[in-house]
Design goal:
eight-stranded parallel beta barrel, TIM Barrel, single chain, 467 residues, alpha/beta, binds beta-D-fucopyranose
Length: 467
């Protein structure tokens, strides 16, 4: 790629490559609301959020940020920011209610209108097919631990590509399959809330398979120029010390959090050590001949979601855990430094470490930072302003890390800030605000925060200040 990255000692700014993609990201269940409109059926997140005790304060996505009805206003906000790209997700139960049968035109029409509105604003649509809202019917017949769900997903991908292929240029199959498998079926803090390590591992494999079959379906349906991608929340892992036990803790978590996806998707294999470490949980006989050829269907780019690093050491932690047995060998420690409202450490170095690792492990593969951002306890002050200097500082340090990675030869093509709007933050409900636009959920009033102004200026300059 032609890079024009400048950071010579004389300049005071870090300039990004020409054509760098600047975006914001959201997900359907977190912003759309309109949960029962136009034929949409419940997803596992509707069921889960309506189950007492699962989500903070009993919050649900029934109304969320009401984006389904306010979409033009939200696109206008992005036009003012000057973003080049917008990453959103398509609600499976809106397009193919119950996860079977033909596409519902009204469901597709919402996303067609969104894409038209975006194109009119000069913003490229980047669509994710699965951001965790599995139709409840497919969970009732077994969910992701069942192989059939992967086949259903490929069919949904084909239907959606047929309906929107003329409008969407970049397609992401899955968002963070680690969370879907291990938080959904391992420790149960996410929908559908099951707690079974064997099911979590089966789910991970079937998500990989769903990805591979969907890539095949997308390639058949979409124009050749379409970009097909996958988004992973790879874990930036650090050993507490360089002692052998701590290094082995890193290896174990790397296997069950990172290589469980990277190896099948990019190398057509399962990590040997993962199979060995999990032998007491499963014999992996659900992996059938030919599956790993499917999971490794070539893709055009990889999306990385990054928020904070993970420090591990030899030891043991509590169950139920999302680590499929590794928790009896691994202790998790707080990384030092300041924290966001999620209690996540602010540490941009982890993003640099991940990006350079991928440069070395997957040479030639374009990368996108598909999520990065921070929650803080924002509020509108009496004059109506939302001051969020910590978020600006978080974004600045992470963009500086991205720039440094590009200078180190990593092919990062774009950055998508999580998130455009305050929204339904899964098990935390509306208690955690990640938006650069504040949402008053009582009135649905949108107020750009100071970070929105800062991000708009960053995009216009295609640069950030040198730290
Ligand atoms: C990621 C999710 C996204 C959002 C951020 C904070 O794991 O993909 O939906 O909740 O975390």
């Amino acid at each position: 790629m032609t890079t024009l990255v400048t950071s010579s000692p004389e300049t005071t700014e870090l300039r990004f490559p020409t054509g760098f993609r600047w975006g914001t990201a959201t997900a359907a269940y977190q912003i759309e609301g309109a949960a029962t409109e136009d034929g949409r059926t419940p997803s596992i997140w509707d069921t889960f959020s309506h189950t007492p005790g699962k989500v903070h304060h009993g919050d649900t996505g029934d109304i969320a940020a009401d984006h389904y009805h306010r979409m033009p206003e939200d696109v206008a906000l992005m036009r003012r920011l000057g973003v080049t790209d917008y990453r959103f997700s398509i609600a499976w139960p809106r397009v193919q209610p119950t996860g079977r049968g033909p596409a519902v035109q009204k469901g597709l029409d919402f996303y067609r209108r969104l894409c038209d509105e975006l194109r009119e604003a000069g913003i490229r649509p980047v669509a994710t097919l699965y951001h965790w809202d599995l139709p409840q019917e497919l969970e009732d017949t077994g969910g992701w631990p069942r192989r059939e769900t992967a086949a259903r997903f490929a069919e949904y991908a084909a239907l959606t590509a047929a309906g929107l292929g003329d409008r969407v240029a970049t397609w992401t199959t899955l968002n963070e399959p680690w969370c879907a498998a291990f938080l959904g079926y391992g420790n149960g803090v996410h929908a559908p809330g099951r707690t079974n390590d064997a099911d979590a591992l089966r789910a991970a494999h079937h998500l990989n398979l769903a990805h591979g079959w969907a890539v095949q379906a997308l390639r058949t349906t979409l124009p050749n120029a379409a970009e097909v991608s996958l988004t992973l929340n790879l874990h930036a892992l650090r050993p507490l010390t360089s002692a052998a036990g701590d290094l082995d803790a890193v290896r174990r978590i790397d296997a069950v959090a990172n290589r469980i996806f990277l190896d099948p998707v990019f190398h057509g294999r399962l990590p040997d050590d993962l199979v060995r470490d999990t032998a007491g949980i499963t014999d992996w006989s659900f992996v059938q001949d030919g599956d790993l050829a499917v999971t490794s269907a070539p893709i055009d780019s990889l999306g990385i979601n990054y928020y904070s690093p993970t420090v591990v050491a030899a030891g043991a932690s509590e169950s139920p855990s999302p680590w499929a047995g590794a928790q009896s060998h691994v202790r998790f420690l707080p990384a030092p430094g300041p924290r966001t409202a999620m209690d996540w450490p602010v540490d941009a170095e982890g993003l640099y470490e991940l990006l350079t690792r991928l440069r070395d492990e997957l040479p030639g593969l374009p990368l996108l930072v598909t999520e990065n951002g921070a929650a803080y306890d924002d509020y509108a002050d009496p004059s109506g302003n939302v001051r969020d200097p910590e978020r600006i500082s978080y974004l600045h340090s992470h963009l500086t890390a991205v720039h440094r990675a590009i200078e180190a030869g990593v092919d990062v093509r774009g950055y998508f800030l999580w998130s455009l709007l305050d929204n339904f933050e899964w098990a935390y409900g509306y208690n955690k605000r990640f938006g650069i636009v504040h949402v008053d959920f009582a009135t649905q009033r949108r107020t750009p925060k100071d970070s929105a102004t800062w991000y708009g200026r960053t995009i216009a300059r295609n640069a950030v200040d040198k730290p």
